[in-house]
C-alpha cells in the first residue's frame, strides 16, 4: 500500500528497521546516528521538505584531496545509480563530500520501497567512502597507500 510518509511515519519505519537515529521535529530532519559510526562518515540525515525525501551522507575530505576529487566527482556520479556526489567548499570549514539521494513522495511509497532505497543508497555511498578512505583522501583516514600519485581510482563499486 502506498503511503505519503511524514516525519512520524519515517521515524516508525526506522524503528521497524531497528536503526539508531535522532529526530528533530522542529526542522523535519532525522539524523542517522548509526551511520556516523562508520569510518569516514561525519554526518548522515533524512530531510523531509514538502513532498521530497532527501537522504544525505557527509564525509570530510583532506585539503590535498580537493584537486583529485574535483576531477573525479563526475566519474563517481556516473558509477552510482542512486547516490549523487557534490563537493561542499567553505572558507571556514573543512571540505566535505556530500552523497545525496532525493525521491518524490507526493504519490506515496511503500515501506519496502523506502527500505530498498535507503539500503541501496547507503551501499553505494559506503563503497565510494571505503575507496576514498583506502586512498587516504578522507580527513582522519588511517591508511596511506599512495593512491594520490595517480588521478584515477581503481573502482567505485
CATH architecture: 2-Layer Sandwich
In terms of DSSP E residues, the strand content is 15-25%
Give helix % range. Answer: 25-40%
- Stretches where pLDDT is under 50 for at least 5 consecutive residues are 141-157
CATH class: Alpha Beta
Order of helices and strands: HEEHEEHEEH
Biggest sheet, spatial arrangement of strands? 1-2-3-4-6-5
Instruction: Provide the domain count.
Output: 1
**Arithmetic mean of pLDDT:** 86
Helix run count:
4
Pfam family, one: YbjN
Protein name: Bacterial sensory transduction regulator
Structural description of this entry:
With 157 residues, the protein is of the alpha+beta class. It has a single domain (7-149), classed as Yope Regulator, Chain: A. It contains 4 helices and 6 strands. The protein has helices at residues 7-16, 33-36, 66-79, 111-134, and strands at 22-24, 29-31, 43-49, 52-60, 84-88, 96-104. A 6-stranded antiparallel beta sheet has the order 1-2-3-4-6-5. The longest helix has 24 residues, at 111-134. This is Bacterial sensory transduction regulator.
Question: Which key terms come to mind for this protein?
Answer:
alpha+beta, six-stranded antiparallel beta sheet, 157 residues, disordered C terminus, Yope Regulator, Chain: A, single chain, 6 strands, 33% helix
Amino acid at each position: 500500500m502506498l503511503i505519503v510518509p511524514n516525519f512520524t511515519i519515517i521515524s516508525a519505519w526506522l524503528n521497524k528497521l531497528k536503526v539508531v537515529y535522532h529526530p528533530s521535529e522542529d526542522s523535519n530532519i532525522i539524523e542517522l546516528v548509526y551511520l556516523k559510526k562508520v569510518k569516514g562518515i561525519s554526518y548522515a540525515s533524512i530531510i523531509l521538505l514538502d513532498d521530497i525525501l532527501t537522504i544525505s551522507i557527509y564525509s570530510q575530505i583532506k585539503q590535498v584531496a580537493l584537486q583529485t576529487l574535483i576531477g573525479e566527482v563526475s566519474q563517481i556520479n556516473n558509477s552510482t545509480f542512486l547516490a549523487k556526489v557534490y563537493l561542499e567548499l567553505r572558507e571556514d570549514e573543512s571540505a566535505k563530500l556530500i552523497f545525496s539521494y532525493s525521491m518524490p513522495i507526493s504519490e506515496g511509497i511503500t515501506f519496502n520501497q523506502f527500505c530498498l532505497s535507503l539500503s541501496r543508497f547507503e551501499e553505494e555511498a559506503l563503497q565510494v567512502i571505503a575507496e576514498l578512505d583506502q586512498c587516504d583522501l578522507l580527513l582522519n583516514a588511517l591508511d596511506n597507500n599512495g593512491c594520490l600519485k595517480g588521478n584515477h581510482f581503481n573502482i567505485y563499486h
